[in-house]
Each structure stands twice: as C-alpha cells, then as structure tokens.
Amino acid sequence: MPWFTSRREFLRTSGYLGFGGVVAGWGETADADDTGSRKKLVVDSHVHLKHGDAAKTEYTAEVIVRVMDAVGIDLSIVFAMSTTTRRSIEMAREAVAQYPDRLIPYVYALPHYQRPVIKEIEEVLVGGLFKGIKIHAGECTLADYVIDPVLELAGHLRVPCLVDCLGNISAARRMATTFPGTWLIIAHMGRYLCTDPKLVDQFIALAEECENVFLDLSGVVLVDKIEEAVQRVGSRRIIWGTDGPHPKPDLVTFAREELEKIRRLEIPEEDKDNLLGGTILRLVRK
Fold it and tell me: Is the Cβ–Cβ distance between 215 and 187 less than 8 Å?
C-alpha cells in the first residue's frame, strides 16, 4: 500500500472532522517506522492558493496536494491573498471541499476603515471550517484603527493570526503587547528572505518577551537563526511552512528542500517534530 494511501486512511478513520477539521490523535500517523515508533504528522503551515507576487499566482488544490504527496507532507494550511476577504473564503472553501482530509483553511483578513470585514471573518471562524486568519501588511495597514478589531476577534475565538508585518518590529510589538490573548504567528521570522541578523534577533527577542508570539519559518534564509530561536524561545512556539507553492527550481524540489532544511538542523528530534507539525496542530485544534 502506498505511503500516502495509509495516511489518508488513517486520517479518515481516526477522528478527522473533515473540511479543515483536525486529527483526534494529534500529530501521529498510523504508520510505524523501522523501530516501531509512530510517525509524526508533517504540516506545511503556510501555503498559498493565491500568492501576493506581481503576477498574483494561483495554484489549484490538486497541484498543492500532488506536491504534498511527492514530498511527504500530510496536511497543509491554505489561504488566498491578493483578493477580497469574501473571495479568499470562497477559494479556500472550494479547495478544502476537494481535499477535506489534507487541507486546513485560513481566512484572509483585508480590513479597511471604509470596508469592514469583521462580520465575514467571524461567520466563517464560528462555523468551524476555518482555523485561523492571514494578515499581510503589503495589502492593509497595521494601524490600530484598522487591524485591532481583527486581532481582538482572533483572541476571543482562540484562533491564530499569521501576520506578515514586512519587518515592522514596532507594529509587531504593539500587536503582541496590546493583545496578549491573541496568538500571533510572525511570518518569515520577521521579514521574507531577510539577511539582516539584527532584525531577525529583534523578532526572536519579541517571542522571548511575549508568550503569545510564534515564529513562522517560511522564507527564512538565515538557518542558524532557526536553531538559535529554538534555544531561546523553544520549539513549541516555532512553526514550519514553505510559503509555497514555488516554481523554482520546481514545485516539488522547492518544497522538499524546505522540509530537508528543518530535518538537517542540529536540534533534538522532539524539537523537529514540534516545528514540523506539533506546534501548529496545538493551535488549530478546537
């Protein structure tokens, strides 16, 4: 039996709720390795149905799952950006309807003082299908009069917010300290493809200071800072994701290299398990 068939069968029979639901066993598959130990689920926590690049690239659910199967990823958290909140909901709902045992949706928050979206976000989160919120500073301001209602709602409903703050440490600190009951996942450990270790250090320090801050590892090129973050913050507040799909060098190779980057880290296996699934599964479990 192929490896992905046994995983899918396990997810179907072990309490998976479907439509972005979660696994009753949390973090384990039915397959055993050569030592008889149960394997941990691998979760890609940062996957785009629609990217924020210049071309606003879109990927279908079929393509995403095909990459997952090729690389060995059990679950992926998906969302669309560069569109309206309503359209992001439609795209994520359609994707998860096709693969309810593989994909978990986030709603994309595109708030504006003239265009409130709180009602739309609240409706889908209360419904139970959507497990978190994606916010991107490239498409909305992080000013308090716009973003705070979204953060307050996330804290009330106990769902994580994946926030790309584009390296704005001041905005990240304000959000974290103003809403200590809201789980903030800081995308890219602060800034995508950041080569400034001092900036990354500031975001690690913020996570040390604020227990509601989690660090997303997608687009992190300073690999030594990942190991440092594990030592300083602890693996239970660090989350792996690919920020994929990405076409270079090709979809599968990109995802596989991002996964192997974590597996090559010189940290305990228990910490790797947290980064690759354990931490995010604890946040989206409800």
Answer: no
Residue 144 pLDDT greater than 70, yes or no? yes
| Pairing status of strand 184-186 against strand 213-216 | parallel
pLDDT at 57 (0 to 100) = 94
Please compute the mean of the pLDDT values over residues 171-178 and round it to a whole number: 98
Contact call for residues 105 and 78 (beta carbons, < 8 A): yes
Residue 118 to residue 129: CA distance in whole angstroms: 16
Give residues with Cβ within 8 angstroms of 215, minimum separation 6: 185, 186, 189, 203, 204, 207, 229, 233, 237, 238, 239
Cβ pair 119, 144 in contact under 8 A: no
Residue 22 has pLDDT above 60, yes or no: no
Q: Kindly tell me if the per-residue pLDDT of 227 is higher than 70.
A: yes
Angle between the N-to-C axes of helices 118-127 and 85-98, in degrees from 0 to 180, rounded to the nearest 10 = 20
**Separation of alpha carbons 142 and 67, rounded Å:** 33
- pTM exceeds cut of 0.85: yes
Q: Which domain holds residue 213?
A: 3-284
How many domains are there within the chain?
A: 1
DSSP-derived 3-state class of residue 76: strand
CB distance 74 to 102 below 8 Å? yes
Residue 94 is part of a domain; what is its CATH number? Answer: 3.20.20.140
The whole-number pLDDT of residue 5 equals 32
Cα–Cα distance measured from residue 225 to residue 218, given in angstroms and rounded to the nearest whole number: 13
Report d(CA 194, CA 43) in Å as an integer: 23
